Amino acid sequence: MLYFCVNQASFVKKDVAIFAQKYDVKVCDFYHTNKKYTPILFLKQFWFLLVNIWGTKIVVCQFAGYHSFMPTLVARLFNIPSLIVAGGMDCVSFPSLRYGNFHKQLLGAFTRMSFYLCTHISPVHESLLKRNDTYYGDDNFKQGILHYCPNIRAQIKTIYNGYDAAAWPKPHQNRKPNSFITVAATLDNPVRMILKGADMVFDVARLLPDYSFTVIGFMGNRKPDWPANVTVLPFTPADELARLFGEHEFYLQLSISEGFPNALSEAMLCGCIPIVSEVASMSFIVGDAGFVLTQRNVSMLKVLLEDAVRQDKVFLSKAVRNRIEQNFPISKRVKGLLDLTEEMLHPNKEKTA
């Protein structure tokens, strides 16, 4: 198996480990911090394919984009089945935030061609295929792969993210009252602040001075106009993150765009009661064990938080962990991915059995 990704993030390593249970996996990343190096990365990828395509049985791309075009094209030319695992950014366009693959003309073209070239697509949630987005009113109402690529012929199978509950500590009751935490990377970027809803956290904190908020994901210095009841921390490793989750009652995920957010599910495993925006998979993930903000409105968020702190928090803390354990165990994703690749390699196996 040849596996292509932008970078080797934790969720990428998790999927690679799953595939490695059955295949000899060779990984090629497409990581860069400067766009001017993109041609060099294409050359690197071309050489990787030239050396490794011979004898390859299957090609997998984590997300669609520049990095998925050449692998899916070569796989098509060599009659090798190819899979794109769609995750979020590769399924949307938000022009006002300059976010999403389909917002950018060239990246959108590479993304679109990749989806048309591949034989299989596995989104992490059905909402990445097609949805009407009503939470954020400044941009496109319709989102999803099938909206931007309406004539796709690839076979589609949704496989949710999965989690090892044993890796995250069970909920305890020794938490700071009326405490909220949120996590996102590179929040020093003003657009990322809005995209991940961190700006909403600062705004609502000013309206609720008796509540405490922790925002993880800043690398710069604290700004003087930030509310005193907001603690700002840099991005932290998983073990430290688990400890911080365990100290807070609620987890906030107020994003404008998501796929199937790992931090949300991991916080729930630690007993944080989720409060999420009605975007993509998030209301589905929390079910009836959390709270959903239907519009990007700070006044509505304030009312929602005030309602949340009045609920039976001990009961909900246990319920949210159970929801992830029972509905999204890592075993389901393992079976889903390995069954899918088996079907890709032997499409007529069931028909002839």
How many structurally independent domains? Answer: 2
Return residue spans where pLDDT drops below 50 for at least 5 consecutive residues. none
What is the CATH topology of the largest domain? Rossmann fold
Largest sheet: spatial strand order:
2-1-3-4-5-8
- Can you identify the CATH superfamily of the largest domain? Glycogen Phosphorylase B
Shape: globular
- Rg calc: 21 Å
User: Helix share of residues?
Assistant: 25-40%
The residue-averaged pLDDT reads 94
Going by CATH, the architecture of the largest domain would be 3-Layer(aba) Sandwich
Regarding CATH, which class of the largest domain?
Alpha Beta
What is the number of beta strands?
Answer: 14
Keywords: Transferase
Domain Glycosyl transferase family: 227-312
GO molecular function: glycosyltransferase activity
Protein name: Glycosyl transferases group 1
How is this structure best described in words?
This protein has 353 residues and is of the alpha/beta class. It has 2 domains: 2-162 and 330-352, Rossmann fold; 165-327, Glycogen Phosphorylase B (Rossmann fold), CATH 3.40.50. 40% of the residues lie in helices and 15% in strands. The protein is built from 14 helices and 14 strands. The protein has helices spanning 10-20, 38-52, 66-77, 105-117, 145-148, 190-195, 198-207, 238-247, 262-269, 282-286, 298-308, 313-327, 330-345, 349-352, and strands at 2-5, 26-29, 59-62, 82-86, 120-123, 131-132, 142-143, 155-156, 179-183, 212-216, 230-233, 250-253, 273-277, 291-293. The strands form 3 sheets. A 6-stranded parallel β-sheet has the order 2-1-3-4-5-8, covered by helices on one side. A 6-stranded parallel β-sheet has the order 11-10-9-12-13-14, sandwiched between helices. It has a two-stranded antiparallel sheet with strand order 6-7. Strand 3 (59-62), helix 3 and strand 4 (82-86) form a beta-alpha-beta unit. Helix 7 (198-207) packs across helix 11 and helix 9 packs across helix 12. The longest helix has 16 residues, at 330-345. The model has no long low-confidence stretch (mean pLDDT 94).
